[in-house]
């Protein structure tokens, strides 16, 4: 589940999600609103990598077997952090499955005995294992991003070492200093600190999970495991989050990549949707022929056609999307 839960993320990560959503809510995609159902429109304007992962893992693409990746129901349920449909996404815009996969999710949830909430629309309490997948994600991306920032020199060695040291008491800090005197390579020192912090956070999140088992099983547990960890780890984690936001995620290099990502994805979506809507045009055929036959560009409804385009684009890596954008724009040609 941990390995699979991010498979639906488009190029450029969360920036890519926003680029897709805003193409429909603010960009050229707005013209399609009256041609789609209410729930279909919400799927697009709240595009979510988590929901896309569930689709990728369960959808039968052309030429593929039924059931998609044919994973266990427990694995599928464990990646759905937000077990409700897009019409319940609210202000945060988070949801767990598209309209097209709603029946599949209900089948998984009901078979596993997940608790259905007494609200309008499809909404369940989380599967208990979601909390472990979420904790692994929270721990890894935060701690690994700090190490990456050190390698990219967004954080100094002293800053990075201080951030990681906040997680330990004096006795453990003394042991860390002894290791650092033996291992003089600065990157190895940071890697050792990072792994030590991850180990401490895993242990603490495990404690929270076990102690709150009954609440989790009854659907009464609120928030993530990481929000319930004790001191000094809680304060250290919050401090790392604040530093990461200001010094990493808001750095000029990261923002420049996000800006480029918006342009790349918006352009690709615009061109590909126009192509699948007007396949009789010569240029449309050139674009469609670029796509794998597993994507159903000849689907009977506009919603399914758009999904085929988003399946294609969200399956790209950052580098592939940028390369395709350059080729389509005529800024790059393959070697002859």
The percentage of residues in β strands lies in under 5%
What does the overall shape look like? Answer: globular
Number of helices: 15
What is the distance, rounded to the nearest whole angstrom, between the alpha carbons of the first and last residues?
Answer: 42 Å
Low-pLDDT stretches are: none
What class would the helix/strand composition place it in? mainly alpha
Q: Helix fraction?
A: 55-70%
- Main beta-sheet annotation: none
Instruction: Write the element-wise H/E pattern from the N-terminal end onward.
Output: HHHHHHHHHHHHHHH
Q: How confident is the prediction overall: mean pLDDT?
A: 92
Number of strands: 0
Taking all Cα atoms into account, the compactness measure Rg is: 22 Å
What does the model show?
The protein is mostly helical and 336 residues long. It is 60% helix and 0% strand. The two termini are 42 Å apart.
């Amino acid at each position: 589940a941990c390995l699979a839960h991010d498979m639906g993320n488009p190029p450029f990560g969360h920036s890519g999600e926003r680029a897709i959503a805003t193409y429909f809510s603010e960009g050229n995609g707005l013209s399609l609103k009256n041609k789609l159902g209410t729930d279909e429109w919400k799927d697009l304007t709240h595009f979510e990598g988590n929901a896309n992962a569930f689709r990728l893992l369960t959808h039968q693409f052309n030429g593929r077997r039924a059931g998609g990746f044919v994973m266990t129901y427990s694995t599928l349920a464990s990646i759905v952090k937000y077990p409700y449909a897009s019409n319940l996404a609210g202000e945060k815009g988070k949801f767990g499955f598209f309209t097209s996969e709603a029946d599949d999710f209900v089948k998984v949830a009901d078979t596993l005995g997940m608790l259905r909430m007494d609200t309008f629309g499809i909404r369940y309490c989380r599967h208990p294992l979601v909390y472990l997948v979420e904790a692994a994600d929270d721990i890894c991306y935060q701690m690994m991003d700090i190490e990456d920032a050190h390698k990219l020199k967004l954080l100094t060695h002293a800053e990075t070492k201080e951030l990681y040291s906040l997680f330990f008491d004096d006795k453990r800090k003394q042991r860390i200093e002894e290791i650092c005197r033996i291992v003089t390579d600065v990157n190895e020192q940071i890697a050792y600190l990072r792994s030590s912090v991850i180990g401490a956070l895993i242990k603490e999140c495990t404690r929270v999970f076990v102690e709150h088992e009954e609440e989790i099983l009854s659907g009464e547990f609120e928030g993530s495991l990481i929000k319930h960890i004790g001191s000094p780890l809680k304060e250290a984690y919050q401090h790392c989050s604040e530093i990461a936001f200001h010094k990493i995620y808001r750095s000029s290099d990261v923002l420049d990549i996000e800006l480029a990502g918006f342009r790349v994805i918006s352009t690709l979506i615009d061109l590909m949707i126009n192509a699948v809507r007007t396949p009789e045009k010569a240029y449309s055929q050139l674009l469609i022929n670029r796509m794998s036959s597993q994507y159903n560009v000849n689907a009977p409804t506009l919603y399914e056609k758009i999904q085929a385009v988003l399946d294609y684009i969200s399956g790209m890596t950052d580098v592939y999307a940028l390369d395709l954008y350059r080729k389509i724009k005529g800024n790059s040609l393959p070697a002859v």
